[in-house]
Amino acid sequence: MALIELSSSHLKCYHLLPLTRTPMITHVGFSRKIEAFTRRLPCLETTIIKRKPSVFDSYLRKRINCLPDTSYEFAAMLHYSLSYWRLKAGFSYHHAEPGYVMLTYWIANEPCMLPSTATHQVGVGGFVINENREVLVVKEKCPLRCSCIWKLPTGLLDKSEDIFCGAIREVKEETGIDTCFLEVVAFRHAHQVIFEKSDLLFICMLKPLSFDISIDALEIQAATWMPLDEFLDQPFHREDRMSKNILDICIARHENLYRGFTANRMMSKLDERLSYLYCGDI
């Protein structure tokens, strides 16, 4: 396997390379089954490649950084190596992040075992109801079908953000209301939602800690505390089976007729990290 990380900001440096538009590389790795090289450029204005210590990654590839001093020499070495491994280098896109694109090439004559890029996006929604049986709802400022519907505050998780933290943050950003997490009461799993990715939406029961609304005018048309019966009486929520079932579950939880999943923080010996297990009463 070969990997290339190509920083989009380095496209202007391509003219520095002789004979080929192959991007410059910063470190190379080898193992018995996998030969890999990856690329991340720290500087725009120099062709000198700095050496870094050898490291092992999670696939036990040893990254060896005995590289030539200049990008010219390394580009020539890389071009020769690829020609040796394959007559034609069949790189394909793996994933992209702001600032770089990852290209992959499986060298061995066997099925590629490199894990695919992320297949899902993760969203959260917050059901917030006060002592007057009023639900915190929003109208989104978007050209979608939901733009005229009063709905629960929802949004996508940020990178490395916990589910319950994302729900609290989204409610705060959209409405200005502070909340605390009670339970995950349901989640929806759908496919081909955006960019051909699947989607997980976790519905969280939140308790309000403040009551004065202040909307995010860039994203939200309006937000209000709406009487529960009025909210449920909207044609969309009466006719859409998914929405109706989600709201029925939230109401049942509010009336203590249903229990969802709480977040239990614990350590796993698999990775020696603290993480959250969402489950019923233990």
From TrEMBL:
Keywords: Hydrolase
Gene3D superfamilies: 3.40.630.30, Nucleoside Triphosphate Pyrophosphohydrolase (3.90.79.10)
A GO term for molecular function: ADP-ribose diphosphatase activity
Domain Nudix hydrolase, chain residue ranges per copy: 119-248
InterPro entries referenced in this protein's UniProt entry, alphabetically: NUDIX_hydrolase-like_dom_sf, Nudix_hydrolase6-like, NUDIX_hydrolase_CS, NUDIX_hydrolase_dom
Protein name per UniProt: Nudix hydrolase domain-containing protein
Natural source organism: Ananas comosus var. bracteatus
